[in-house]
Design brief:
single chain; alpha+beta; Thiol Ester Dehydrase, Chain A; 5-stranded antiparallel beta sheet; 4 helices; elongated
Length: 166
């Protein structure tokens, strides 16, 4: 029985947009830098960032793709509040297959970020362990207050059947 059903194929091309209610803020950037143990003064020192040619502190590159400040929903069963397709796939576990990032410009504390996610493709491929698995490719495009593109996150999710499932 194939994993890629006709119902699942209708998800290809779907888009969803989330917009932040507020600016990212210096505190969020500082906390993220602390969490990833990055002491770069560009992320904490306003004067240093200005001397380096920025209008103020900037965020570590992956901050924009990891923040959930644009999310306006309650946490799911795992405590996650960010974007999720919630695909109608049963009997499988979801594994993050990887991300490919493109950062257009540094993110500023004054940025109010929006992101548009597009489900670009779902492909069923043979597994080296036997059977098949699904590869889901989505792209998140992140924009600033002026609707200028600031980052792109291409994400691959893999849905593998649980043991004993087709």
């Amino acid at each position: 029985m194939p994993l890629l059903t006709e119902e699942l194929k209708t998800w290809i091309g779907r888009e969803v947009t989330y917009a932040a209610r507020e600016e990212l803020g210096r505190a969020s950037i500082r906390y993220f830098a602390l969490a990833i143990d990055d002491e770069n003064p560009l992320y904490q020192d306003e004067g240093y960032a200005r001397e380096a040619g920025f209008s103020g502190v900037i965020a570590p590159p992956t901050f924009v793709v990891e923040t959930c400040q644009y999310a306006h929903r309650p946490p799911n069963a795992n405590g996650y509040i960010g974007h999720s397709w919630d695909l109608p796939v049963s009997g499988c576990r979801m594994i993050r297959g990887g991300n490919d990032y493109e950062f257009i410009r540094p993110v500023l504390a004054s940025d109010r970020v929006s992101v548009t996610w597009t489900l670009e493709d779902i492909v069923e491929r043979k597994s080296r362990l036997g059977g098949t698995q699904l590869f889901v490719t989505s792209v998140g495009r992140y924009y600033d207050n002026a609707k200028d593109l600031i980052a792109v996150n291409s994400e691959t999710l893999v849905y593998q059947p649980l043991r004993g499932e087709p």
